[in-house]
Amino acid sequence: MKIATYNVNGINARLPVLLRWLKETTPDVVCLQELKAPQEKFPEAEIKEAGYQAIWNGQKSWNGVAILARNEQPREIRRELPGDVEDTHSRYLEATVNGMLIGCLYLPNGNPAPGPKFDYKLAWLERFKTHAAELIASGKPVVLTGDYNIIPTEADVYKPERWFDDALFRPESRAAYQELLAQGWTDALRKLHPDKAIYTYWDYFRNAFGRNAGLRIDHFLLSPAVVTKLKAGGVDQFVRGWEKSSDHAPVWIELAD
């Protein structure tokens, strides 16, 4: 079972790139973030023609998450992160696919920090940690994946000294990520590649992709019931080099049946 996550940075603007990548790599499950499209503008017909059933939670102009499954309909569990009924941001979607519970998330960026946006990020993280702890306690096979907007360690960023004041790299964000790991979640890519420089995002400016001046902010957290099935994982970095591509690259893992 191959599961991927991809921040598409506008699904309709990047649709040719998304469809080409789906055709070339054929993941079984795909979590998408930053759809930047209202519910009715999701390209359901084109996704279906590519062989995928989908559920999605859109939002005009920003945010938005989706879960795609090849030749199978994802069974939706929830389309919001519990804990704040007034939070209307489309940032979380949860479903089961082939017996696996998949949580797709687009965590707030939080910049500028400090400030209200960073406060929102930290509050969202607290809610996420609470929900993640409940999922761990369930004993179910769970994958929590998406754009976390967190750089976990200095090994996950090109020239970390330039990022210390950024919301993605502030101590509070990194501590929250470590607290998730302490619950029993495993960072899949770091388990597979403990010492490798891995990036999943490159800014559009200053030739960041050409210089490989990137960040690792798109993550897979696996529950104990899933870790034992982890076989492989990586980043489809080549997609970032395609014309009109997102500033993120798809990230994937492969699990034993």
TrEMBL record:
<feature type="site" description="Transition state stabilizer">
    <location>
        <position position="149"/>
    </location>
</feature>
<feature type="binding site">
    <location>
        <position position="7"/>
    </location>
    <ligand>
        <name>Mg(2+)</name>
    </ligand>
</feature>
<feature type="active site" description="Proton acceptor">
    <location>
        <position position="248"/>
    </location>
</feature>
<dbReference type="InterPro" id="IPR005135">
    <property type="entry name" value="Endo/exonuclease/phosphatase"/>
</dbReference>
<feature type="site" description="Important for catalytic activity">
    <location>
        <position position="218"/>
    </location>
</feature>
<dbReference type="InterPro" id="IPR020847">
    <property type="entry name" value="AP_endonuclease_F1_BS"/>
</dbReference>
<protein>
    <submittedName>
        <fullName>Exodeoxyribonuclease III</fullName>
        <ecNumber>3.1.11.2</ecNumber>
    </submittedName>
</protein>
<keyword id="KW-0464">Manganese</keyword>
<dbReference type="GO" id="GO:0004519">
    <property type="term" value="F:endonuclease activity"/>
</dbReference>
<feature type="binding site">
    <location>
        <position position="147"/>
    </location>
    <ligand>
        <name>Mg(2+)</name>
    </ligand>
</feature>
<dbReference type="InterPro" id="IPR020848">
    <property type="entry name" value="AP_endonuclease_F1_CS"/>
</dbReference>
<dbReference type="GO" id="GO:0008311">
    <property type="term" value="F:double-stranded DNA 3'-5' DNA exonuclease activity"/>
</dbReference>
<keyword id="KW-0378">Hydrolase</keyword>
<feature type="binding site">
    <location>
        <position position="149"/>
    </location>
    <ligand>
        <name>Mg(2+)</name>
    </ligand>
</feature>
<dbReference type="GO" id="GO:0046872">
    <property type="term" value="F:metal ion binding"/>
</dbReference>
<feature type="site" description="Interaction with DNA substrate">
    <location>
        <position position="248"/>
    </location>
</feature>
<feature type="binding site">
    <location>
        <position position="247"/>
    </location>
    <ligand>
        <name>Mg(2+)</name>
    </ligand>
</feature>
<comment type="similarity">
    <text>Belongs to the DNA repair enzymes AP/ExoA family.</text>
</comment>
<dbReference type="Pfam" id="PF03372">
    <property type="entry name" value="Exo_endo_phos"/>
</dbReference>
<dbReference type="InterPro" id="IPR037493">
    <property type="entry name" value="ExoIII-like"/>
</dbReference>
<dbReference type="GO" id="GO:0003677">
    <property type="term" value="F:DNA binding"/>
</dbReference>
<dbReference type="GO" id="GO:0006281">
    <property type="term" value="P:DNA repair"/>
</dbReference>
<feature type="domain" description="Endonuclease/exonuclease/phosphatase">
    <location>
        <begin position="4"/>
        <end position="248"/>
    </location>
</feature>
<dbReference type="InterPro" id="IPR036691">
    <property type="entry name" value="Endo/exonu/phosph_ase_sf"/>
</dbReference>
<keyword id="KW-0460">Magnesium</keyword>
<feature type="active site">
    <location>
        <position position="106"/>
    </location>
</feature>
<keyword id="KW-0479">Metal-binding</keyword>
<feature type="binding site">
    <location>
        <position position="34"/>
    </location>
    <ligand>
        <name>Mg(2+)</name>
    </ligand>
</feature>
<dbReference type="InterPro" id="IPR004808">
    <property type="entry name" value="AP_endonuc_1"/>
</dbReference>
<feature type="binding site">
    <location>
        <position position="248"/>
    </location>
    <ligand>
        <name>Mg(2+)</name>
    </ligand>
</feature>
<feature type="active site" description="Proton donor/acceptor">
    <location>
        <position position="147"/>
    </location>
</feature>
